[in-house]
Amino acid sequence: MCPLFELSLETPARVLKLHTPDELTQRLCALGLRPGREVTVLRRGWLGGPLQLRIGSTELMLRREHARAIDVEALLAREA
């Protein structure tokens, strides 16, 4: 288990828990970022910029401070 912020690029992970304020939690859940869903970090913004995430077919940007408040567990690499 680690914060989403520490997840390596292109590593699939499962969301475990969101430790964010209720309003932000509701918004993230509406976008698909909720416990049990798979998430991948695609890019990291320069100089402390946001993370670009993929959740299913949705891509979104998330501030690093919020990514630190989301627990994930890395999934094993899928075999081709």
From TrEMBL:
<dbReference type="Pfam" id="PF04023">
    <property type="entry name" value="FeoA"/>
</dbReference>
<dbReference type="InterPro" id="IPR007167">
    <property type="entry name" value="Fe-transptr_FeoA-like"/>
</dbReference>
<protein>
    <recommendedName>
        <fullName>Ferrous iron transporter FeoA-like domain-containing protein</fullName>
    </recommendedName>
</protein>
<dbReference type="InterPro" id="IPR038157">
    <property type="entry name" value="FeoA_core_dom"/>
</dbReference>
<keyword id="KW-0408">Iron</keyword>
<feature type="domain" description="Ferrous iron transporter FeoA-like">
    <location>
        <begin position="2"/>
        <end position="74"/>
    </location>
</feature>
<dbReference type="InterPro" id="IPR052713">
    <property type="entry name" value="FeoA"/>
</dbReference>
<dbReference type="InterPro" id="IPR008988">
    <property type="entry name" value="Transcriptional_repressor_C"/>
</dbReference>
